[in-house]
Every structure is written in structure tokens, then in C-alpha cells.
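ingest -> fold -> write
write: protein_1
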Amino acid sequence: MFFVSIFGTKVAFAQEWQSKFVKMNKDGHLQYTADEKGNTIPDFSRVGYHQNAKAIPQVKVVVTLSATGNNDEAKIQDAINQLAMKQPDANGLRGAILLKEGIYNIPGSLKIAASGIVLRGEGAETKLLATGIGKRKTIIASGEGKLSEIADTRVKITDHYVPVGTKSLHLASTQGFAVGDQIVVYRPATANWIHDLKMDQIEPGTGTIQWTPEDYNFEFERKIIAIKGNEIKLDNPIVMAMEDQYGGGLVYKCSFKGRISEVGIENLALESEYKSDTDEEHGWDAISFNKIENSWISGVSSKYFGYSCVNLSHDSKQITVKDSKCLAPKSQITGGRRYSFNNDGQLNLFINCYASEGRHDYVTGAKVCGPNVFYNCVSENAKGDIGPHHRWAMGTVFDNIKTDGEINIQDRGNWGTGHGWAGVNQVLWNCTAAKVTVQNPYVSGSNYAIGVQAEKTEGRLKGRPNGVWENQNKTGLKPSSLYLKQVEESKK
């Protein structure tokens, strides 16, 4: 802290400082410091809609509907189905359905199963009301099928150690691969990896399940952007080290027939009927995405739902969720409830969101393959914690998150049915919370608390390795947002 005298009055300014892990050099470019194995904090810039390479489009309205209280759900669904039959344009867009101001009763679910459809309201005065009883999702956008390996394309990674943060790999052969190929970087699990993590030794609790190798094989979706000899360059970084001692890694071409894209949900208020503050037979997710990529949710709010405003499932990729709110959830305050903005997919971005009264407001689930970003989001009246929730999420940055609750990255032990190590290569950057726990797993990576304003706590389970802390409760971190600076760099 230093002081400057202005007209005789001393004004305090925070002393600017930079992280030793990522800093700006003299020309303003980011410089990453590697550890002894070559690991760096990853580049999180290429997440969200088209990896920030395209702006979210302003899609032309082709259908306009008004609320009448008479078969509102059926009318909207019919418009969605009719639009799905229209030929998309060169950008994969079919058009927008505009819902005029009013209250639209939705006793079931609205389903978008085709690409290029936008559902748009006129702001808070366009309300979709989840009426009646029963847990359900109000808006479901989902394709079909699954991520599939293309036969006879599997090639071994020859690097003995692939560090976190790298965007290049050496293969046994690049024959048959081309720039632009969609690939999977595959990291198999092994029994000795799980043993070294001590996740086959979780203290038994109610229904505790020890981790097994067949459940922890990871598929990171990437694209080849350059090939030189037997080296390929990737569009996004490695977010979990691959090591010979733990099975190394593979690359193969992939496809996902049936996955949809270019879907938008915009400027809508979603609200659920409910009978009491602990009622659970009512609207559960306001918006649910799965088997979908390059899509967006913008300017939505949810009120009185039991689980989430936005729930991105495992096969959601390159989704942007922005300027949205999760308000006043209604449910019991216990496990499996109030995950305000939940992400189980990869390459997804949550930006400028707000949540109140949630348990896990900005959260990832099990085996989440990053990178993923939560930036400039606020949580108030929190009933639980923010962070990776269970079973090994990889490569998330929580950047400028503010909460009156906790942010935790830790071994959660036998909570749930064996949550264990919640995440690895997680970065808290310039966050503010009441309390924060950051622990490092026994092997396979680190977790970082950089410029965090909070009380440091030991966590649920004692004796775990301490995470990487840098300048706790010291203001003035530059860049103030790692994510925004990385985006700026990516566009140069």
C-alpha cells in the first residue's frame, strides 16, 4: 500500500504486483513460468462460443408468438418443430422465435433438438412459468448420439511426460492426420495412478465407492492446428499431465454425429411454481444443454427452481453462458440441490453471472475435461461452496469470483458416494470469499490461489498437501483478470 497526497489529503493505492507463475513482460505480453517438469498455468482464452473467434450472432426473428394462457407450451414447441424443418443458412442458423412480453405456462418441457434455433424473449417481462408438479427441465436443448472414435486412427503419444499448459504433442506417426482434424487426446487411467492418489483407500461412509481405472479414462476434445514432422499443435492446452508411469496417452480422430450447434436462449425469465420453501416436486433445471456445441445462453434469469438456472451436461462443448441470474431456489438445503450454474462439459465459459441462496453456485462435476472458465461472477447468501465438486475436474479458472461463502478445492473424502479429490490444475485468480481451502492432490498436478482475498482454511480432511498460495489478501494483482488478458493475447 502506498499513499499519494491530493490537495493535502492522503489517498491510499494498492501496490501493483504480478504473479510469479504468469506475468506481463516489458512489452505487455504474458510470460508463463514452468515448474521443473514443464507444467504451466494453462491458457484459458479459447473457450465458449466458437472459442472466442466469432461473436454471438444477432439472429433474425422468423416467428413471433404472444402468451394467451391457452396451450402456450404446445404453441412454442410447434414453432420450434416447424423451424427445425427449415433449411439452415450458410452459418448454420435457422432463425429466432421471439416470445413477446407475457406469461407462458409450461407444464412440461420445451425441447430443441435441431441446430440453428434461437429462443428469445423481451427481457424480464417474458416469463416462462413451470406450472404444476413434478421435477423437470423447462428448456432442453440436446442432440443425440455420442463422441465416437474413428476406427484405425489411434496413435500413441511418444512424449514421456506431457506437461500441463502445452499445446503440442509428439506422436508415433502423424500419417493420416491433417490440419483441422477433430481429435481426442486420450488419457487412460491406471490402478497405480488411483492408488497413488489414495482414491482406492477412501474412508468408508454411506455407500462409498472406491475409484476404479475403468471409470477414469479421460477424453479431451481438441483440433489439430499445425503439423510438423511427428509433432501436432492443438487449439487448446493439455490440462492434465500425461506420464508414462501412469499409462501415457493416445490421440485418435473422432466424430459426434447428432450433436447440434448454433442454439441460443436469450432474454428470458424462467420461474417455477412451488408449494413451500422445501418443496421439491416442481421445476428443477431452468435450462439444460447436452450433446451440443457452439451455442449460447444470454440474459436469462431463473427463480424458484430446485437445481439450476443453467446445467451443462458432459457432452456440452464451447458454450457461452453470460449475463444470467439464478434467484431464490426452492428445495431442501442438502446434497444434489441448488447447483446454480453447473458445468460438466469442456471448453465452456460462464461470464457476468449472479446467484443467490445456492449451495454450489459456480461448480463442476465429475471427470470434467477442461479448460473451462468462470469469470466475473457473484454469489450471495451462499449455502455451500464454489469450486470443483467431486471426482477430479481438470483445468478450470475461477477468475474474479466474489462470494460471501466458501471456495474450496480439496479432497472431499467419503462425501457423497466417494467424492474424493475434487479437482486438479484449478486456478483461483483475484477471487474474494469468506473462506478458501486449496489443497494439492498427492500426484498429477497442482491447484492455485493467486491474489485471493479470504481466510485460508485447512479443509475437511487434515494432512493433505497444501495448495499453491501466492499473496493471500494482497490487492493490486496485475493483470486483474488472467482470462481477459489471455483473450487479449489470443487476438494479437
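write: protein_2
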Amino acid sequence: MTSKETSPGPDREPGGPEYGFPAALWRRLARARPPGPFRPEVWRSPIRGPWLTSVFGAVLLVTLPIVVVTGLLSYAAYGPHLGQAIPADVGWLRLPYFDWPTRPSWLYRLTQGLHVGLGLVLIPVVLAKLWSVVPKLFAWPPVRSMAQVLERVSLLLLVGGLLFEIVTGVLNIQYDYLFGFSFYTAHFYGGWVFIGAFVVHVALKLPHMIRGLRSRSLRTELRTGRAGTTPEPPDEHGLVAPEPAAPTVSRRGALAMVGGGSLLIAVLTAGQTLGGATRHAALLLPRGRDSGDGPNDFPVNRTATAAGIDPAATGADWALEILGGTTPLSLNRDRLTAMAQRSAELPIACVEGWSTTQVWTGVPLRELARLAGVPAPASARVLSLESAGAFNQALLQGNQVLDPDSLLALRVNGAELSMDHGYPARIIVPAMPGVHNTKWVRSIEFRVG
């Protein structure tokens, strides 16, 4: 047996059955290599190799779990134990039930801001990682052993799941209800596909990543310009180009380009949270840009017109129905404004990633619960004047009703609520997803069980 047969490289013909295929079949498949990207000489970048791939992989290994965990926390914040998270019935994928806390008041703003903001910032890193391993995606024959079957299936699910989450997430940010399917349902299950593939891929590739990182010095690469850039030694995985071209960029330049792309995305998204003049630079989150006037000049996710609110229903005849006790109550706006008022500086954070903090004034929900004869409610059901829509009602947990800063808000920043911000009254609860801070409230039912 020749040395070529005993020590096959990534593009050589193995000569033994240990690769999972009879040698003759392997040689026949290798000779039938398709043209184009399936031929290794097509991929000629001299900076591709285990080290650069491992650097991108290490960044994603640290940051993608943060995106995953904050995404799952966002689902938990919608109250799956109350049956209002989307999707509602997830079978054995059900997360542990718990009451989403109201403190700190910026909790949901932090978790969802990290989920969306970090997810967007990582797009250049994801694309760079895919670029670094693209020759592997076109390896021929596609599989050589059962271990490689598992690796390639996990890679397919990993890349497909990640790209699906990115594309649908970005489109959901940019466009209102674009899909012919539930974004929330698809994003949830797509996320679990990615999680499973990510765990398998890390288990298979972590030792290779560690070796790749140790193969070169980061400090040395950051000091090496294009003139000094040389290809890595041939590797067993076929990442290094067999016929490398002259370098057009150094590894330092590639890292700078990817890092610069991530920094640019951060600049273009951060204004949705920082507010003020920086909001005009937030080009990637236009759904949070609609604003009102004066004290009501802050983002609106859904206007009164878009929600189909009849102005007549919010006029002088409007009254809040309070249910749950032995006798229903009806409180018009004059009676509500005559009650003891409380002001609280609270954020509204949206699932699309934008958030804003304003000073809200209104009647504490726990005071309304006391009036209803349910001083310690287990939950509360809030209905909106909005007749249709996925979020024309919300269920509040008992701790959310009883928090002292949970309000039926009547004013914001010292002024009356505008129609687009929920006039004549809206719900404001610390740390709750924005869509559950119901606008145009028509009734609240306090429940004991």
C-alpha cells in the first residue's frame, strides 16, 4: 500500500473501508467530481484556514448563546403559563413556567434589546464564518463516513436554521406582518432547530477550534500587513486553498472589515434605544420611528388608524369597565382622573428591539383591583377597543397587577395621551413586553384564579 493510500488528505482518494465506503466506489465518486465550486482549485483565498475560521467561531461561540438565551427569555416574558405566548402549545419544548418579574423595570428592555441588537451586530461575523468554511460546503464526495454524515447534517441544520432566524428576524423588524405564517411560531421552532444543531456542531468542532486558535498568534496576525500574509499549512479539513492566489487583504484587514461592519450595524441600531438625535441614525428599525407631537413625541408601533380605532368610541361616552367582583363597575375618565394619581418613569420595549422611556401618570392597577373587590388577584384580563389584531387583549400576572408602578395611564410626560399612544387610557407595567401594555383599554377583569 502506498503512502498516498495510507495517509489520505482532504482531496485524496482513501484506500480503505475505514472511510465508510468501499475503495472502488470512493474512487469512482472522486473521479466524477462536478465542475465549478466542487473543485478545490476554485477556492484560492490565501487567508482561509483553520486559524481564521476558529477566530470567527470563537466569537460566535461566546455570543450566540446570549442571543439564544435572551430569545427564550423573551418567550417566557409573554406568559406561556397564561396561554398567551406564541406559539401557545409547544409540547416537550415547553419552558419552565414562572411569573415574569416586574423588577428591574428595564429587564425586558435589556433582554430583548440584547437579543435583537446583538443578533444584528453578529450578521457580519456569521457571513464571515460562512465564507471561511464555504469550501467545506462543496466537499466531494459529500460524505466519507457515518461521522461525516452526522457532521454534514448538523452543518446543514446549523446554517439553515441560523440563516432562517436572521432573515425572518430582519424582515420582521423592517416590515409589519410581512409573512403568510406566524413569525413568532416560525421563529420559535426555527430557534430550536438551530439550538440542537449548534450543540452538536460545538461538540464535534470544539477540539478543532481550540487547535486552530493555538496554531497562530493573534498578536502577530494583527501586526502583519498584506505584504507579509502567507497561507496556512495544508490542513486535514480542506480549508486551506491548494492553489492559493496572491493576497489582496491581510487577515488583520479581514478582521477589521468584519469588525467594522458589526460596529456600523451597532451605530445604525443603537439610536432606537438611546433616543434623541441618535434615533435618526437608526435606519434598520423603522417600525419604531412613528412619533407623536410634544410630550407624545416618542415611537408608536401601531397607530390608532392602523388599529381601526373608532374616534367616537374614545369620546365623552367612554368608560372603563371593571369586572371580577360581585358588582361590575363603570368609571368614566372624569372619575378616573379624580382618583389618586401616581407617576412612574418606565420603559416600553418592543419585540422588534426598539425601546423608549417616558414618565407615565395614572391610577395604580392594584387600586382598581381593590375597587373591584379583588385585592389580591391571581391575574387580570385587559381588553382593548381594538376589535381585531393579535394583541387586542392581554393577561397580566398577579405580581404585575400589584406592582406599585403598574398603571392605567391617563397622561404621559405631563400631557394627555395622544390617540396613537392609547387615549383615553392604556396599561403600563414595569418590565413587560410592549405589546401587552394594551392601548385604548375598554375593560379590566381581575381574576382570583
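write: annotation protein_2
Confidence is low (pLDDT under 50) at residues 1-21.
The radius of gyration is 28 Å.
pipeline exit 0
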